[in-house]
Design a protein that fits this description.
single chain; alpha/beta; Rossmann fold; 6-stranded mixed beta sheet; 4-stranded parallel beta sheet; 21 helices
């Protein structure tokens, strides 16, 4: 590993790119609170890459945390990198402008470590596109000794095999402490003039949360090492002392309006619930909480550094935070006089939620969002979400009485044991919840019901199940819309997730190394920004699967036997026996 010279492209970006793109603010950097170190004076240079546009990436808390932590280390520089939109990419390729960082406008290929946070399977082609724009080979085996180490973290790391050909290293689990340890090891071995291969081997041996695919091959029996001394089972990195885990003090204030512009404080990590479809609730364990005083002080610092007018209290299930009433009282005491609102997302329907609207006097009263998931109590038993219609109605009624005007509901279709009656109840329940407002002010509430299609996920009890077929989802959509017309519901609106994307997500999320060729083929045929309507093209993916001798929908509907070796079972998830217990319990409820 050598200390490379950095190519800066600031001037060419200013002259040849910014005047010709629709939103130049995505590429200029220089925002309030950014950290720009002198790269030549740093021992380790890290590119923090988010495989989507600036507005999305600037709302991702994970990158913000790592940016703050790594730039807090002496001799380490961390700079942000986002995926350029179509207009910018076209110019960059035409004028040979390499992918560059925001802070220094330095070529990404000249950094030491290039880390990607992958939060969704439909970002995989953007990973390849960014590597290619950086001037790097997309496959790790083809990259040179002086190329950066490509590290992948986030949700994708726990089901890494479909993108294993493109990464040098996966980091499983939580990144705060793991990133520091990896950077320290890299600095130590770089100082000793070790090779990239030696660094990867040492990391693979030293850290139980590091997976280096090149040291293994896959066969029918599972993972097989090709070098001595490396493990075959991995564990997620876990920050045990969550109370004192770093919280960014000065978040960057974006130049272009991002999806979420607010003070974001994580108050709890992990979820006490065990919804059987939810990967995060099973992979992000144990449950840990921060104290009220620490949260309030962190929110004050971020507000003073940014001026954002909303504070968001984040967790997988904020209403399960054990000191929620005390926390909201403390937040209101400080922020209400400043006209700063509170956002309390991720609410679970339970008796505690009935009290929440009364406690949150400064929450924006426009609407309340509730993840109901299943409209029938029987189906909630299958998915292990034990809430009753009585509690749900009480919670929504309390919200109306507290001044909330609208409700957004999240439902999912495709659970095992689901019937047409269960699907129709989505409409009936939404209608009922809308009518509850009449008892408060004589009006129907506006209800927006978002309906998505179950995507079985790795490391969950439903990971053994195949996804329902396209015809099933299309029929479910027709049933819902027909019942809406039958009931003449003017105050209930249904939004449906795109079925094609859900099928692709299912096929990609539980696959093995055979999908590396599929992903590369799709990308070489033009696939990118698959989460966006402007980029997604189902035909490209169907052809890519066919070129590998596979069928997209067959892969999405693939099921596994309980005793079968799974493509992800070695990658840091929960104990298989515990997942199987939930699986069999769910099948018992289905009957």
């Amino acid at each position: 590993m050598i200390h490379k010279e950095i190519q800066y492209v600031k001037n060419v970006v200013s002259r040849e790119l910014l005047p010709f793109v629709r939103r130049p603010g995505r590429y200029i950097g220089g925002e309030i609170n950014q950290v720009a170190k002198e790269l030549h004076g740093c021992d380790v240079r890290v590119g923090l890459c988010f495989p989507d546009i600036y507005e999305i990436g600037m709302s991702y808390l994970g990158t913000e945390i790592l940016y703050s932590i790594l730039n807090g280390l002496d001799g380490v520089a961390a700079e942000r990198v986002f995926a350029p939109w179509f207009d910018a990419e076209e110019i960059m390729r035409a004028k040979n402008i390499p992918l560059f960082t925001m802070e220094s406008r330095a070529a990404v290929r000249d950094f030491d470590l290039v880390g990607f946070s992958l939060t969704n399977e439909l970002c995989y082609t953007n990973l390849l596109n960014m590597l290619d724009l950086a001037g790097l080979e997309v496959r790790s085996e083809n990259r040179a000794e002086d190329d950066p180490v490509v590290v992948i973290g986030g949700q994708a790391a726990n089901c890494a095999e479909p993108i294993s050909a493109f990464a040098d290293m996966f980091v499983l689990g939580e990144g705060e402490e793991a990133a520091v340890e990896i950077v320290k090891l890299y600095r130590q071995m770089k100082t000793g003039s070790a090779s990239k291969e030696a660094f990867l081997l040492e990391a693979a041996k030293r850290f139980s949360y590091v997976y280096v695919p090149r040291f293994y091959e896959m066969d029918g029996a599972g993972l097989k090492p090709t070098v001595e001394g490396v493990r075959t089972e991995f564990e997620n990195a876990v920050v045990q002392d969550f109370e004192n885990a770093p919280i960014p003090k000065k978040p960057i204030v974006p130049f272009v309006q991002s999806v979420h512009e607010r003070v974001s404080i994580e108050i709890m990590r992990g979820c006490p619930g065990r919804c059987r479809f939810c990967q995060a609730s099973f992979c992000r364990r144990p449950v840990r909480v921060r104290g009220v005083e620490r949260i309030v002080e962190a929110a004050k610092r971020q507000y003073e550094a940014t001026g954002f007018d909303t504070v968001s209290l984040l967790s997988l299930s904020t209403s399960d935070y054990p000191y929620l009433e005390e926390l909201i009282d403390a937040m209101n005491a400080y922020f209400a006089p400043l006209h700063v609102g509170l956002s309390v997302p991720s609410l679970r329907v339970q008796k505690q939620l009935q009290l929440l609207p009364k406690m949150v006097t400064s929450v924006r009263k426009g609407g309340l969002t509730i993840a109901v998931e299943a409209a029938s109590e029987h189906l909630r038993g299958v998915i292990n979400k034990p809430i009753t219609d009585e509690d749900l109605c009480a919670a929504v009624s309390a919200a109306y009485e507290a001044g909330f005007l609208r409700v957004k509901l999240y439902f999912m279709v495709g659970f095992p044991g689901e019937t047409e009656e269960d699907i129709l109840k989505i409409v009936d329940l939404s209608s009922k919840l809308s009518a509850l407002r009449k008892d408060v002010d004589g009006k129907f509430a506006d209800i927006t019901a978002a309906v998505s299609w179950l995507v079985p996920k790795a490391h969950t009890p439903f990971g053994w199940l195949g996804q329902k077929g396209r015809a099933y989802f299309e029929k479910a959509k027709d049933l819902i819309l027909s019942r809406k017309r039958e009931l003449k519901l003017r105050f209930v609106k249904f939004n449906f997730h795109e079925i094609d994307r859900s099928i692709l997500e299912s096929a990609m999320g539980r696959g093995g190394r055979e999908l590396c060729d599929v992903i590369e083929t799709a990308w070489r045929n033009g696939a990118k920004f698959d989460l966006w309507n402007e980029g997604f093209d189902l035909k490209r993916w169907q052809e890519a699967f066919e070129s590998a001798g596979l069928n997209l929908e067959t892969e999405a509907q693939k099921s596994f036997k309980p005793d079968e070796s799974l493509p992800w079972s070695h990658l840091g998830g929960p104990d298989t026996a515990g997942l199987l217990k939930h699986y069999h319990q769910a099948m018992g409820v289905v009957g």
